[in-house]
Design goal:
The complex is a heterodimer of chains A (436) and B (318). Chain A is an alpha/beta fold. Chain A contains 19 helices and 13 strands. The chains are: A alpha/beta (436), B mainly alpha (318).
Chain lengths: 436, 318
């Protein structure tokens, strides 16, 4: 009698079930976590990854090629692009750090992320890596800024390479036509409404980018600094700043209330569309105004830069600068190489070369300003603001990302007449108190 | 009664069980059927378990903690997150506008969807083309629609304010007024989703026998009486079903608000899903965000139960 090798239905079901169960169990098995890497010694042939924004990728490539970092150190550099927004970058790094790894070793990051990452313990302390005379090269305003935005509990977590502030762009041609000077005080700004605003034609003295999502907070920090305070303190200076803004929008009609729904792109479009006489705007607008698309429109007296108005807080806080800089991630698998790259990038020699590669690396370090092209509009403006002593320290809060959202929500409620000033202030105070 | 078993062609008598307790005794073929059933249902069951049941239970658990990745806290705090929901102005405002959005947009979706369906159910030249282009708003990604309308309604460069200014001389700035901003969000929501409702209603209308209308006409019923007395009751189960779906989908609405207003001005157009995103993804406060998620889950549950009750009430036979 021959033994049948045909698979019965029962055998098939048993086999299929066993296979499925095995696959399911294998999928459910916890992934092995990698052992924490020991700090490697610097070796020729090492590798380091640096994360930069997309706009800075070419500048970084050019800088590393020009300064021959790889040739000098034997360390290969891979440039990794950051995600589009700080929220996604926060998510990306937080997830990686939880897994004891990092998608990059050195990061080029902004103020908000510096606060979040250093608070969360994701970054390496840098003081041991910095040359003793580094701070001598920084302008006093930059040093003060670094102490507030790049350090935590006395330890430095970031060294900036880009340091820029909103500038006061104005239509010199219009001002000359009207025979009026640019405003230098809050009252003079209010007076611009009567001179330039024509609501029927859709023309305003100024517009700003005050939409939700950090735009409004940037403005509130700026105007409260002019009032002499910090918006996160929700004190009399913040109240004065809100009242001033409300007056600009609804009483003196200098500031278009539509600013509350405008981003910087819409603000720039209004300026380029000859709708406004002046505006507070980041320096990238200078490049936008000079690019090929606007060549026919552009003239020097259409995009003049003047000093910002002085508020009740005095000249020293007429504006503030924000910055981007380099930091090292604690869970980087290439820590030694990352430290070498960091030291290289923040050195005086490389900082000067970086500025020559692109204005993304322009800042108020003495060596950098000394080597910069004095005829360039941005260099001139930076020198003007630095020499005039109008740059204050950007208002800070230890839980900055949450605090700015609270300020934006409550201020917008007042500025859109949803709540009274006192209600707005009290809401902000209550919510901010819960953060500490 | 004695059972007779056949085993290898030999009849044997079954033995009486030793114990008095009943046993669940399946035949071999029944066992094979059950095993096959389990194997076939298992993938769907595992999928629902991992993508629905586990996340819900995990969220419920997290809502009892103060898990915050940036603050490095992760302790069990019981119900402490829940009273904070009532104190948080963002959550309060989000809850109120979420209810407004859900009720307002669902009602308008049903009405506008029905009107479009009635139009598309009429026989006219080009009705096929009309039915096709009707779906265009629905297929546009919601976030794209949000950004597009943000620019369309821009006071300086938007098409709609420009037209309104041409016709009336009035310059509108929709997004700085809480009332207008809310209306815009609801109307854009309806613009986006009413075409899909119209499609579904059209299918329902085409299922209504035409001889009923003929009989009604013979009895002297006018167009409105035929619509209200016949069409509406006959499509009521479908209306309730679609209404229920719309209510639940609207409760989770996020992308339109995110693209259009970011919840502003202030928190006037903030919705619960946006608050969850803000607390969880922006601030990494997973514990508090989970508590808001549980609130949203309860709302969805209430809507679902209410909808099922209405559905049973609205059974129509003819």
């Amino acid at each position: 009698m021959s033994v049948s090798r045909k698979l019965s239905r029962r055998q098939f079901i048993r086999l299929a079930g066993a296979t499925a169960a095995g696959a399911a169990l294998a999928a459910c098995a916890p992934a092995t976590t990698p052992a924490p890497t020991a700090v490697p010694t610097v070796l020729k042939g090492g590798k380091v990854r640096i994360a930069v924004g997309g706009w800075a990728e070419q500048n970084m490539k050019d800088l590393l090629a020009k300064t021959e970092f790889t040739k000098k150190t034997g360390i290969d550099v891979e440039i990794v692009l950051r995600t589009d927004t700080k929220e996604t970058e926060l998510t990306r790094l937080a997830s990686a750090v939880q897994s004891n790894t990092s998608p990059y070793d050195v990061i080029d990051f902004e103020d908000e992320l510096t606060t979040s990452f250093s608070q969360a313990g994701y970054m390496v302390g840098l003081d041991d890596l910095l040359p003793a005379d580094l701070w001598d090269d920084f302008s006093p305003a930059m040093v003060d800024y670094t102490k507030t935005w790049s350090t935590l509990n006395g330890e430095t977590f970031r060294v900036i390479h880009n340091w820029e502030m909103p500038y006061w762009f104005y239509r010199k041609d219009w001002f000359d036509q009207k025979g009026t000077a640019i405003p230098t005080t809050w009252d003079e700004v209010k007076g611009m409404g009567a001179i330039f605003t024509d609501e029927a034609k859709g023309n305003w003295a100024t517009i700003d980018g005050l939409t939700k999502g950090a735009f409004l907070n940037v403005y509130l920090a700026w105007v409260t600094l002019q009032a002499g305070g910090n918006p996160f303190d929700v004190g009399p200076e913040y109240k004065a700043a809100l009242e001033y803004t409300y007056d600009l929008m609804y009483t003196s009609k200098a500031l278009n209330p539509a600013s509350l729904q405008s981003s910087y792109d819409q603000q720039n479009s209004a300026y380029l569309g000859d709708k406004i006489a002046f505006m507070r705007q980041w320096p990238y607008f200078g490049d936008v105004a000079r690019n090929d698309d606007n060549k026919a429109w552009f003239a020097d007296d259409k995009v003049a830069v003047g000093l910002p108005p002085v508020g009740p807080g005095g000249k020293g806080g007429s504006t503030y600068a924000a910055g981007w800089g380099f930091g090292i991630v604690k869970t980087s698998p290439n820590l030694a190489e990352a430290k070498e790259l960091f030291k290289f990038l923040v050195s005086t020699e490389v900082a000067v070369e970086a500025m020559k590669v692109g204005f993304w690396f322009l800042n108020a370090r003495k060596s950098v300003l000394a080597a910069a092209d004095p005829d360039n509009w941005l260099v001139k403006s930076l020198k003007m603001y630095t020499d005039a002593g109008v740059i204050g320290v950007r208002p800070h809060h230890p839980r900055f990302v949450e605090a700015l959202t609270i300020i934006e929500d409550t201020a917008a409620a007042y500025l859109t007449k949803q709540s009274s000033l006192d209600e707005s202030m009290n809401q902000a105070k209550d919510q901010l108190a819960k953060l500490v | 009664m004695q059972q007779i078993h056949v085993r290898r062609g030999i009849e044997t008598k079954a033995r009486r069980p030793v114990t008095a307790l009943p046993k669940f005794n399946l035949s071999k073929s029944a066992q094979r059927r059950y095993l096959l059933f389990i194997l076939l249902v298992a993938p769907a069951f595992v999928l629902r378990l991992t993508t629905a049941a586990y996340p819900i239970l995990q969220t419920l658990y997290l809502s009892f903690t103060n898990l915050n990745l940036l603050a490095n806290t992760n302790e069990f705090i019981g119900l402490q997150n829940y009273p904070e929901l009532a104190d948080n102005y963002g959550v309060q405002a989000s809850l109120s506008f979420t209810l407004m959005l859900v009720v307002g947009s669902t009602l308008l979706d049903l009405i506008v969807g029905m009107l479009i369906a009635l139009l598309l159910n009429a026989g006219f030249r080009g009705v096929g083309f009309a039915r096709t282009i009707n779906l265009i708003p629905w297929v546009i990604p919601t976030i794209v629609a949000g950004y597009a309308f943000r620019w369309l309604l821009d006071d300086q460069f938007g098409l709609l304010p420009y037209w309104i200014h041409l016709v009336s001389g009035i310059r509108i700035v929709p997004f700085i007024s809480p009332l207008f901003a809310r209306m815009v969000v609801i109307l854009v929501h309806v613009w986006k989703d009413a075409p899909f409702m119209a499609c579904v209603f059209l299918a329902g209308l085409q299922g209504v026998p035409l001889d009923l209308y003929d009989a009604a006409k013979v009895d002297g019923a006018n167009a409105w009486q035929r619509f209200w007395g016949m069409t509406v009751p006959l499509v009521m189960p479908l209306t309730i079903t679609m209404g229920l779906f719309r209510l639940v989908w609207s409760l989770g609405s996020f992308d339109l608000v995110y693209g259009l207003t970011q919840g502003g001005p202030g928190v006037a157009t903030s919705v619960l899903a946006l608050q969850i995103f803000r607390e969880g993804i922006m601030f990494f406060k997973f514990g508090f965000a989970s508590a808001i998620s549980v609130l949203l889950l309860l709302l969805v549950g209430l809507v679902g139960i209410g909808g099922l009750w209405l559905f049973r009430k609205a059974d129509v036979t003819y």
